[in-house]
């Protein structure tokens, strides 16, 4: 439930209402807008006496939130959330492109890629230091050495860094190197990890699980939001279906749907969504047209030699061409790139 305060409600009246709700055993989340304050009531499913709250001074009305996700809902937070990361904003008018290799393989490979994507117009560098793989015999990443190389690339190029964290114990380590903590598809419902990144108060890129619904994605975001961390970027990266000609089935309709249901920014991963570099460009254009706030794209200077996901990685020249092709589409939907 949310409590909508009157436009002229005083600070004391708002504090009184919040205190009364807490006395009833619920938690309070304040959202202060330009015109009025909204008080979010967070707690279990037991009923709350709405009439008692509505009789309090300064209260205009109460509104039940029927969806299971509360803090992530647009009813609770009607305005778009904009996440700021070292001068880069995700969710505003400018579209944001995160680009880089699937996995950090070496200093030379990472720096070559980082400079290439920066020169092409990318805003954030992506790269995996820890790689969760289907096979235990596949390349698992360089670990902390990969994190150190990402920090070096940030220092040299100025690009903020996003990289994956796989377990709660790793959050302090990854936080010490990365600007954005990525929760991969396999860990979307790793609730201990969601609690840990929520407590870290660091921007989070939350990817949709391979077989997860949109509601399950938003409920995962709710775990992070429950710790007061609203710096969340949602990512549609394709779901597993019966189709065999692509790696996953990219749910393009999820973009406008999530924007309707939630205030959180949404980006699209056309690399994992298709698994084929030839499809990355057309799907990227479709994502921007559908209202995505940005893209996360895999780029490798020599995809044929990549230790992870070479088949879906763009060469730097193709990435540069993609960036140019996106500009007129961005302008057509009222965005900049």
Structure, briefly:
It is built from 11 helices and 14 strands.
The CATH homologous superfamily of the largest domain is called: Aldolase class I
Largest sheet composition: 8 strands, parallel, barrel
Spatial gap, N to C terminus = 38 Å
Give, in order, the helices and strands. EHEEHEEEEHEHEHEHEHEHEHHEH
Strand content: 15-25%
- Helical residues, percent: 25-40%
Return Rg in Å: 21 Å
Write down how many β-strands occur, each being a DSSP E stretch of 2 or more residues: 14
Mean pLDDT: 93
Query: Which structural class best describes the helix and strand composition?
Result: alpha/beta
Q: Specify the CATH class of the largest domain.
A: Alpha Beta
Uncertain ranges: none
Number of helices: 11
CATH architecture of the largest domain: Alpha-Beta Barrel
Overview of the molecule:
- The chain has 337 residues and is α/β, with parallel strands linked by helices.
- The chain folds into 2 domains: 2-63, 2-Layer Sandwich (Alpha-Beta Plaits); 83-332, Alpha-Beta Barrel (TIM Barrel), CATH 3.20.20.70.
- The protein is 35% helix and 18% strand.
- The chain has helices at 11-23, 50-54, 107-120, 144-157, 171-175, 191-200, 214-225, 254-261, 270-274, 277-290, 316-332, and strands at 2-5, 27-32, 37-42, 59-63, 83-85, 88-90, 96-100, 124-126, 161-164, 180-183, 204-207, 232-236, 266-268, 294-298.
- The strands form 3 sheets. The chain has an 8-stranded parallel β-barrel, surrounded by 6 helices. Strands 2-3-1-4 form a 4-stranded antiparallel beta sheet.
- β7 (96-100), α3 (107-120) and β8 (124-126) form a beta-alpha-beta unit.
- α3 (107-120) packs parallel to α4 (144-157) and α6 (191-200) packs across α7 (214-225).
- It is elongated, with a radius of gyration of 21 Å.
- The mean pLDDT is 93.
């Amino acid at each position: 439930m949310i409590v909508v305060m009157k436009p002229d409600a005083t600070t004391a009246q708002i504090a009184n209402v919040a205190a009364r709700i807490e006395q009833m055993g619920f938690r309070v989340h304040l959202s202060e807008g330009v015109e009025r304050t909204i008080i979010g009531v967070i707690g279990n499913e037991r009923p709350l006496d709405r009439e008692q709250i509505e009789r309090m001074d300064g209260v205009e009305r109460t509104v039940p939130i029927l969806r299971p996700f509360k803090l992530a809902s647009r009813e609770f937070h009607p305005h778009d959330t904009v996440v700021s990361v070292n001068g880069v904003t995700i969710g505003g008018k400018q579209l944001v492109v995160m680009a880089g290799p699937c996995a950090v393989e070496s200093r030379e490979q990472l720096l070559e890629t980082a400079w290439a994507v920066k020169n092409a117009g990318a805003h954030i560098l992506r790269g995996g230091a820890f790689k969760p793989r289907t096979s235990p015999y596949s390349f698992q990443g360089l670990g902390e050495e990969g994190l150190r190389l990402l920090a070096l690339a940030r220092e040299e190029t100025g690009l903020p860094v996003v990289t994956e964290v796989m377990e709660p114990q790793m959050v302090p380590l990854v936080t010490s190197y990365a600007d954005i903590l990525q929760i991969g598809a396999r860990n979307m419902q790793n609730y201990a990890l969601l609690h840990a990144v929520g407590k870290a108060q660091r921007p989070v890129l939350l990817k949709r699980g391979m077989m997860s619904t949109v509601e399950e994605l938003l409920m995962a975001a709710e775990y992070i939001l429950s710790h007061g961390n609203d710096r969340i970027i949602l990512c549609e990266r394709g779901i597993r279906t019966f189709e065999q000609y692509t790696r996953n089935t990219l749910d393009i309709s999820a973009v406008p749907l999530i924007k309707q249901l939630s205030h959180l920014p949404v980006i699209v991963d056309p690399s994992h969504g298709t698994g084929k570099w030839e499809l990355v460009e057309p799907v990227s254009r479709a994502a921007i047209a559908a209202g995505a706030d940005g893209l996360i794209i895999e780029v490798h200077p020599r995809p044929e030699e990549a230790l992870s996901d070479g088949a879906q990685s763009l060469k730097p020249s193709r990435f540069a061409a993609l960036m140019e092709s996106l500009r007129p589409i961005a302008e057509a939907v009222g965005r900049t790139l």
